[in-house]
Amino acid sequence: MAALKAGTRLKSAVCSSELMLIVAPERDVVLTCGGAPVIDLGAEAAADAALDPEQKQGTLMGKRYTNEAGDVEILCTKPGEGGLAVDGTALEVKGAKPLPSSD
Amino acid sequence: MMLLEMAAGAYGERVAFQNGEETLTFQELFAAAGVLAESLDDGRTRHLAMIDESSLALPISLFGASWAGIPFAPLNYRLTDSELDRLIAQLHPGRLITDPARAARLGEKIRSADGDSFVEVGSCAALMDTVRAEGATSRDPAWAMDPEDTAVLLFTSGTTGAPKAAVLRQKHLVSYVLGTVEFMSAAEDDVSLNCVPPYHIAGMAAIASSVYSGRRVVQLPNFSAESWLETARTQKITHAFVVPTMLARIIDALEGQPSADLPSLRALSYGGGKMPRAVIEKAMDLFPDCDFTNAYGLTETSSTISLLGPREHRDAVESEDEAVRQRIVSVGQPLPTIEVSIRDVHDGHELPAGEAGLIYVRGEQVSGEYRGQGSLLDEDGWFNTRDGGFLDEEGYLFLKGRMDDVIVRGGENMSPGEIEDVLLTHEVVADAAVVGVPDEQWGEAISAVIVLKPDTTASVDELQQWVKDRLRSSRTPERIEFWSELPYNETGKLLRRKVREALREGG
């Protein structure tokens, strides 16, 4: 797909996951969900795309996913069964320290 | 906007905002914002301004503008018409939402403008009618967020006295919310009471945070201690944010009572000015089951950057260790997403723990940008808050007041220069200095020192009225003294520090 840009809305081609790119990498990467490259939110998924049973870690709404390098950060805006990966490496949930409410 | 869409999808039926008897669910808010966004997308509107107290139209406007990709500018409704005219002049072409009386008053002037400098005027009530109309068209839900879009413009008086607009982009607010709030973390019966005016950063931050956590917000447009206590009781409020002046008044209103008797209230946070130690300690006495949190932040940092949490409040009261006890007057530790550095006022080198200097901060939520001035961040991304302070050995941040001369009275920033300018227009005034002096109720009170022209006289009342007629009551000096001359340094700079010291010594 075209160069990734922060703020872009994406979805999984093989599950119900919807995503927003928070931090976009400055290099070419392949972002996958459930083993298949993610597509633009408005795009139609290919009919033969199937969820890779090895990549069913799932996405959780409101969680941010990031890679070790920290140059990719994705917000899950709708959950799904597939797991997120960049160039084949699974992304990790970005831990948020629980804070007391300040507003 | 993304945040609201998620909220509407996950818990759309929950009530998001409540004002008196009126309510908006998350789904209704989302739909209303979509209708507003569609109407703003007319190819010419570039700003959405609002001059009004908190109402249900406020969150609709904030999210509607975001969805349309234009800045939302909540203006201070306490400003005079001429002050507001100056701000509106910076928001052309745009649309202004305000109350009918003001709309009628301002409308004449504004509608006479044309071309690229138009401002359309409408009222909150009209906006509500539009977004609730049958068959109103909403914006296409397939939209992309541009992180660089300006989400909010907040005018601050700043140091020079000329109003300037702090720019908060989508990326700053989203970073703040994602970094500090867990999605859908609020329990169903969580309710927060919002009494901060819309034009304050805390008011904007509260809307975004509450939507993302799924917590219902009850708006209290006109704060009084009595209405706050009454609303907290009847609405079973669980969370609230107040500025120190408000908390002091709530405590006064509870005079003679052993406790506040608000069993549902679990968390009370405060910020927006220096909290007197006596006030917070008394508050902890009156609200024994309540978690207290002190939040420190600036407009330019998208609200909170440092927090003193409930445990630290209790420790400070219970501890024998003076260092721990002292922390009650600190603003706690920086958020995990924020770095703080204390730097020397003169040469900018980083100072060790315990030494006071200028507070610099860095983080994704830090904007440090003013319209027309660009970013004030240095090349490494650090922002000079112009607040003075130090970090203790454990990393607790203590504030030492503004390094420049802005007076913070009751959470409202004001520039002494603006008040001095007005005083100097009085025919008997030869020279004037305005400074803030510590005040239990307001944080700082405004004091003026006047040098009269030879062989003239003026009463304190007369000069106070002079300022009140031209600015507004909150900018009227509480105290006025007459001196034979003011202290200046060799380069002709007024030594405000000496004025402040003399006033303090004089009691």
Spell out the key features of this protein:
heterodimer; A: mainly beta; six-stranded antiparallel β-sheet; four-stranded antiparallel β-sheet; B: Rossmann fold; GMP Synthetase, Chain A, domain 3; four-stranded parallel β-sheet; 32% helix; globular
What does this protein look like?
The complex is a heterodimer of chains A (103) and B (507). Chain A has 103 residues and is mostly beta strands. Chain A has strands at residues 9-11, 18-23, 31-33, 36-37, 39-40, 64-66, 73-78, 84-86, 89-90, 92-93. Chain A has one domain. Chain A is built from no helices and ten strands. In chain A, the strands form two sheets. Chain A has a six-stranded antiparallel β-sheet with strand order 5-1-2-7-6-10, with no helix packed on it. A four-stranded antiparallel β-sheet of chain A has the order 4-3-8-9, with no helix packed on it. In chain A, strand 6 (64-66) and strand 7 form a beta hairpin. Chain A is globular, with a radius of gyration of 13 Å. The termini of chain A are far apart. The mean pLDDT of chain A is 91. The longest helix of chain B has 15 residues, at 26-40. In chain B, the strands form seven sheets. Chain B has a nine-stranded mixed β-sheet with strand order 2-1-10-9-11-12-13-14-15, with helices on both faces. Among the domains of chain B are: 24-168, Rossmann fold; 406-505, GMP Synthetase, Chain A, domain 3 (2-Layer Sandwich), CATH 3.30.300. Chain B has 507 residues and is of the alpha/beta class. In chain B, 47% of the residues are buried. Chain B has 16 helices and 26 strands. Chain A binds chain B through residues 6-9, 20, 22, 41-42, 61-64, 75, 77-78, 96-103, and chain B through 2, 5-6, 9-10, 142-147, 170-171, 174, 178-180, 182-184, 192, 202, 205-206, 209-210, 212-213, 239, 241, 267, 269, 271, 291, 293, 295, 303-304, 307, 309-310, 335-336.
